[in-house]
From TrEMBL:
It comes from the Bacteria. This is Arylsulfotransferase family protein. InterPro entries: Arylsulfate_ST (IPR053143), ASST-like (IPR039535). Pfam families: Arylsulfotran_2 (PF14269).
């Protein structure tokens, strides 16, 4: 999948961009886990074998051992979702059985595979590592239930969610919080009649994020309740509700939200979220645009007011997904969910109708390709596997292609050639890295070639296998094929 960068101004935060491209319609490219740089070029791509599989919540985290020692890792969910028109027995967007979470090291080697407990399915919405050497995530499954009190079928089910925490070293469950034990399905904004399209399973809650505060509290977002819950982790008790039919807070102008995602604690009695704000709004509610939203909570008056907002130009309506990420330099990074964009804004943000203000970076994925969330993270990748090389005749010259999927330290390439596979002592080319794949033209006859990756100090950090010149050249007018 190749993106189109529509804005790239000075002042963006450091780091690359992490997405899990997929499409519920016609995928352009392949699903998988993708790191892009600011120019839109891929840094690392791990493609999946089927468009029915996808990755979500792909990002950099720190994995801690029991001694408190941390190391940077890549984490993501992998599995399949119930998506129209193919699904028949689960609500749209619910995880199907068979999913899991992956933890990879800086060399792109698998460290951990994490599964859910209690017969629940690992959910794409959240997977967070803690300083305790545990993983906190959401798990979901249909629970049989009489839905007649809510206007549904007697032999129906609720798509229930559990917040689970497991020890990474042992896989042992150390904490769980069950939505049905604490939330009333009658407060749902999702009509029970929607269960008729998913074999009687009602998605009353749709828990889609959990964030752990510094004092042992949890901030839990329930999309289909239009509500965010502050939960005392030790007791499981809901301390207060923001939004929904039983909100403990009133709202100032433009502070209410609908179908929200990615609720996070922020310093200074604030919370952030991605307000999808789209589709099936209450009677009398003004037409909404999706946007990043930071609320300030006044606990004395129990009132929520707008602190910052982040709108897009052109205006976007994202019925599902999305996130608002705080960056280390004070900027905010917005993944637009079901809309194909991701953007970075200076921290002051903007207001509705002024979506270009403070916009520093913006990129658009092709066609109907989207990503559940999008992140900007700093990452140093040193692949355990060698660089790739290919060589092809092109007119009277030869072109050597060099790439190294996932290497963030390669700054230049050195090309060697020789008459035999064991006699590559002559350097015949040198070029600065130019995107994911660099083409180096040489007059050397070869026919054997090899490339070496150089870091910023000119040190060799990787050597490809020896490749033989291929030909004849293509007839389509290109200078060579792209080998990965």
């Amino acid at each position: 999948m190749r993106v189109t960068v529509t804005a790239n101004k000075p002042g963006t935060a450091r780091g690359d961009i992490f997405v899990g491209p997929f499409s519920a319609d016609r995928m352009i490219g392949r699903t998988g886990a993708l790191i892009n740089d600011n120019s839109g070029d891929p840094v690392w791509f791990r493609p999946l074998p089927s468009v029915n599989l996808q990755n979500a919540d792909f990002r950099v985290q720190t994995s801690y051992d029991r001694r408190g020692r941390g190391q940077p890792v890549l984490t993501w969910w992998q599995g399949s979702l119930a998506l129209p028109p193919a699904y028949t027995n689960l609500p749209a967007g619910a995880p199907e059985p068979g999913g899991c979470y992956y933890v990879y090291d800086t060399h792109y080697r698998l460290l951990r595979t994490v599964f859910a407990h209690h017969g629940y399915y690992p959910d794409e919405h959240e997977f967070t590592l803690t300083r305790r050497g545990t993983a906190l995530f959401i798990a979901s499954r249909p629970v049989p239930m009489d839905l007649t009190p809510y206007g549904g079928p007697r032999d129906g089910s609720i798509e229930n969610s559990e917040i689970q925490e497991v020890d990474l070293a042992t896989g042992r469950l150390v904490f769980s919080w069950n939505a049905l034990d604490h939330l009333d399905p009658a407060d749902s904004e999702e009509p029970v009649s929607s269960a008729s399209s998913s074999d009687g399973v009602w998605d009353a809650f749709h828990i889609n994020s959990v964030d752990e505060g510094p004092d042992g509290r949890l901030l839990i977002s329930a999309r289909n309740m239009w509500a965010i819950y502050d939960v005392a982790k030790r007791s499981g008790r809901i301390r207060y509700r923001i939004g929904g039919k039983k909100s403990d807070f009133t709202f100032g102008p433009n502070a209410d939200f609908y179908w929200q995602h990615d609720a996070r604690y922020r310093p200074g009695d604030r919370i952030s979220m991605f307000d999808d704000g789209c589709c099936d709004l209450p009677d009398g509610a003004p037409e909404q645009e999706s946007h990043g939203l930071i609320l300030r909570l006044d606990f004395r008056s129990r009132r929520a007011t707008v602190d910052r907002t982040y709108y897009h130009r052109p205006p976007l309506e994202s019925p599902t997904q999305g996130n608002t990420q705080a960056l280390s330099n004070g900027d905010e990074f917005i993944g637009w969910g079901q809309s194909p964009y991701y953007s970075e804004y200076a921290g002051a943000g903007n207001t509705r109708g002024n979506g270009s203000r403070n916009l520093l970076y913006d990129a658009k994925q092709p066609g109907s390709d989207i990503s559940y969330r999008a992140f900007r993270n700093e990452w140093v990748g040193s692949p355990y596997y060698p660089p790739s090389a290919a060589a092809r005749a092109s007119g009277g010259d030869h072109v050597v292609y060099a790439s190294w999927n996932g290497s963030t330290q390669t700054r230049a390439w050195r090309v060697l050639a020789g008459s035999g596979p064991h006699s590559l002592s002559v350097v015949v080319g040198h070029a600065r890295r130019a995107g994911f794949e660099t083409a180096v033209t040489t007059h050397a006859p070869g026919p054997y070639f090899q490339v070496k990756a150089l870091n910023a100090r000119g040190k060799v950090i990787g050597t490809s296998r020896v490749v033989r010149l291929s030909g004849p050249p293509p007839t389509s007018g290109t200078t060579g094929s792209r080998h990965r």
